Amino acid sequence: MSLILGIESSCDETAAALVTGDRAILAHRLAGQEEAHRPYGGVVPEIAARAHVEMLMPLVESALDDAGATLSDVDAIAATAGPGLIGGVMVGLVTAKALAMAAGKPLIAVNHLEGHALSPRLADPALAYPYLLLLVSGGHCQLLLVEGVGAYRRLATTIDDAAGEAFDKTAKLLDLGFPGGPAVEKAAMRGDPRAVKLPRPLVGTTEPHFSFAGLKSAVLRARDAGIHRPEDIAASFQQAVVDCLIDRTRRAIDRADGAPALVVAGGVAANRAVRGALEVLAAEHGLPFAAPPLWLCTDNAAMIAWAGAERFAAGHVDPLDVPARARWPLDPDAEKARGAGVKA
Ligand code: KG4
Ligand code: ZN
Predict the structure, then answer these.
(1) Ligand 1 in reach of 84 Cβ (< 6 A)
(2) CA pair distance 270, 210, nearest whole angstrom
(3) In what order do the strands lie in the sheet with 3-8?
(4) Shortest-distance ligand to the CA of residue 178
(5) How far apart are CA 153 and CA 147, in angstroms?
(6) Ligand 1 centroid, distance to 272 Cα (angstroms)
(7) Is the CB of 179 under 6 A from ligand 1?
(8) pTM for the full model?
(9) How many angstroms separate the CA atoms of 182 and 298, rounded?
(10) Residues paired with residue 133 on neighbouring β-strands, in sequence order
(11) Which residues of the chain carry a pLDDT beneath 70?
(12) Among 48, 105, 183, 320, whose Cα sits 20 to 30 Å from the Cα of 163?
């Protein structure tokens, strides 16, 4: 059975993991950088890149120790090669290249979004291709038909902010702390989701695209009105996001004409309200539902190692001069969403 070392460094988590081709997670190590970024209320790319340089090799060594393995036991080295903050991506990819060269092992350049997209298959051996995926992270909000490793059809995307970005901005506006998503979820538990009237951008439109920028502006106005408790704004905001995600996903299910399973992945998939509502939606349509365990939703290296294992099994390896990419769409042929900004 293949053994893959995975490396992740595209945002503010440095991570290394060892995963086998039959889904055994032999080790996964992760170092967050929350403390370093907290004073700025968001991820500072230069600080992130420096932290990756300091943390990555010790994490790789610990992961190998945990698994009782050495580099020579590994069949391939998989690293995130984009999309993400380019300094961090380069740190991880260059490290993987150096290890691959030193140990004489193949390199696998993994698209970070593919890591999220395939992570539910690491957690659930019964999840077969194809499936309808809602990919909700800090930088992306997309509906994809996952047809196989490397075969992704983008059905919809956001025309402005990603869902996770909206959570992060709302946390900042309400002064709830950093990182934003979990802070909003925690505050929302103490609030009333019907307390503040907020918009549901694009709900009811034909194409299943997303938009969250207007919601963020509405949160700002609600805050400045000075009459609502932050918990109530947080709960109302979270409900609005859930309503948008559900309406858009329902539209995609209707259009996908018999999608065999509904799957959610990415950092926002760690949100219990989001998971719960999607599970209900799947049940309404008689679809199996899959969501990775919470730790596998947010950035980690096990999902990169697993995507590497799937690629390795399919015979995909990369040359040592493969580039790091700040932007890297999963479906390069997808049409631009009407009204969309520059995001892929
Ligand atoms: O997938 P991820 O870890 O990194 C990216 O690839 O972007 O996603 C991070 C995003 C952040 O915007 C974070 O606020 C959000 O996922 N997030 C959450 C929760 N946990 C993480 N959003 C809502 N509720 C959560 N519990
Ligand atoms: Zn991610």
Answers:
(1) no
(2) 19
(3) 25-32, 13-20, 3-8, 76-82, 107-111
(4) 1
(5) 8
(6) 12
(7) yes
(8) 0.97
(9) 11
(10) 144, 263
(11) 258, 341-344
(12) 48
